[in-house]
Structures are given as C-alpha cells and as structure tokens.
Amino acid sequence: MAQHFLLSAQARTLSLAAVLRMSDEEAEAAFRSIRWPGGKPVCPHCECPTVYDCRKANGAPRWRCKACRKDFSVTSGTLLAFHKMPLRSYLAAIAIFVNEVKGKCALALSRDLDCQYNTAFVLAHKLREAMASELKGMRLGGEGETVEVDGGYFGGYVKPANHKENRRDRRLAKNQNGKRQVVVVMRERGGSTLPAVFKSESALLGFIVSRVAKGTRLMADETGSWNDLAARFPVSRIDHSRQYSDTAGIYTNGAEEFFSRMRRAEIGHHHHIAGTYLVRYAQEAAWREDHRRVANGEQVQAVMGLAMACRPSVDWCGY
Ligand SMILES: [Zn+2]
Fold first, then answer.
1. Would you state the pLDDT for residue 248?
2. In angstroms, what is the span from residue 52 Cα to ligand 1's centroid?
3. Residues with Cβ within 5 Å of ion ligand 1?
4. pTM assigned to the model
5. What confidence tens digit (pLDDT) does each residue in 271-281 have?
6. Ligand 1 mean position to 49 CA, how many Å?
7. Distance separating alpha carbons of residues 205 and 213, to the nearest angstrom
8. Which domains, from first to last, does the chain contain?
9. Which end is more exposed in the chain, N or C (fewer Cβ atoms within 10 Å of the end residue's Cβ)?
10. Using one digit for the tens of pLDDT, what is the confidence trace for 116-148?
11. Nearest-angstrom CA–CA distance, 242 and 289
12. CA distance 99 to 299
C-alpha cells in the first residue's frame, strides 16, 4: 500500500512505459474487461448478449447486436463515446493524468499524446467528469464523525494598470470584476472530500446541510461565514490568527491541505481554472486527495471504470 502521494514501489503498479508497450488488442481487452463482466460484449442499446464481431476496415473493434441489429463499440453509450484516437491513447492519457500529483495541463497532454490542444483539453475534462461522478450524491459525516470545512477564493484577478497614477485600490468592491468564486470543501477525517463552488458565501449553508449528516461535529476557522452553521451542527472553531491547531484536536488542516494542492495546480499547471469549469477542477483535486494512497494501476482502473459507467458527456460529447 502506498504511504501517500509518494507511492511506494509496491504501489507503482502501472507505468506509462507499460501502457505504451501494450498492443492494440491488449488495450482493447483492458477496456472490455472493465466495461463488461468477463470482457464479453453486451449490446448497450437493448442489453442483448448475442452479438457478432464486426470489425471496421481499419481493425477497430465493433460489434453488431443480433436482436436490434445496431452496431456498437467498446465505448458506445459511455463518456468516451465517439472516440477518435486509438484506445491505447486513452489508456495512456488516463495513466498520464492520474500519475500527476496536482494536475496535468492540457498543453503538456497534447504534446504527450501528439494531438491538438483542444482534443487534450476536452479529454482532460472528460476524465474530470468521470472522477466527479464518484462524488454524486455523496454524504459525509454521521454520529461521532468529524468534518472540516474551509473556503477558498478563485478567479476575479484584476490586473494593475501600467502607470501608477491609473492604478485603483483592488480591495474595494467597485474596482473588482465580479468574477471571483468561492470553493468550499468539506473533508471528513478518515473519510472523503467533497467540494462545491458558489458565487457568494451566503449560499453555502444549504449545501452543507444537504451533504453532511446530522450530529456530525464540524471544524471551521474564524471566518464569519461559518457562524450560521452553529444552528445546525456542533461546531468547533479555530482562530488561525492565534494558532493552527489546539490540544483538543480542533484544526482544519485537512481542508487546508486540499486548498494547498488545488492552489498549486492552478498556479503551476493550469494558470486559469476559475471560469465555468472551476467545480470540475475542484472535484479532480478532491479525487486525487481521496485516492492518494491507492496504487496507480488501481487509480487508472478506477478512472476507466468511472468513464465506462458514465453516460456521454453533456458538455463535451461530439468533440
Ligand atoms: Zn441490441
């Protein structure tokens, strides 16, 4: 088992080199075994188990259903439907993506896979969507459990003017551009991480109440936005201007760690994450936190499994 993001030798079970050594048949078999039990194709349109092997002229796998006569491939009806690159490239993309600790920028992915930047960008977002599907409907906490909550601001950067006399005080609301969003993370001690994105802090309470079980002990910092939580949960506060953790085990360091790595993903890899898809980057960061002790081969299998279980992407289908 891995210690942390620093995977031990036993937990480094899948390297990019191993993926690149695979033949097209082996990559196909890997996808088949993850999508269907025993790797035996089943029609995704009518679930008929009797299908004929009906490969395309270029050798790409395709089957035809005996009952409904429709054709399908190993990715039909999944997140990777209508794929254009060979299956091995998707396997390589997933391996590259999960092997990064903080994130993989689309520019580097496009160089690794020798595809266009747009292709890499869309593919990375599909993988984020697969990771996010694991968080759907997730509820944290319970009697005797502790959940740390914290918030972080992303986006809304206003560039200072060139000449000193034209510069404005960027702390004032009238000089901001209104694009700032707040990411809230709820992190259960010894459990999972669940992020969400809001335009303002006033909307958080409803979300936290809907996702955290009654009776959970919450830990929060001294920020005023958490004051309302006390009406619903037992809340312990830690004042960061005085100390970061106290002897009674009151701290929010788990939630801070999440933001520490997400912030570095923004600065070091993506540069701009605070647009429409901020929640996807946050969900990716949460998935990486929660699987940081899992062997990388299992991480690849997990992402493949999630991608195979998802319906075609609403945002990115057809790209
Ligand atoms: Zn069928």
1. 87
2. 11
3. 43, 45-46, 48, 65, 67-68
4. 0.91
5. 989 888 999 99
6. 8
7. 13
8. 9-135+295-308 (no CATH), 146-275 (3.30.420)
9. N
10. 999 999 999 999 999 999 999 999 999 999 999
11. 28
12. 9
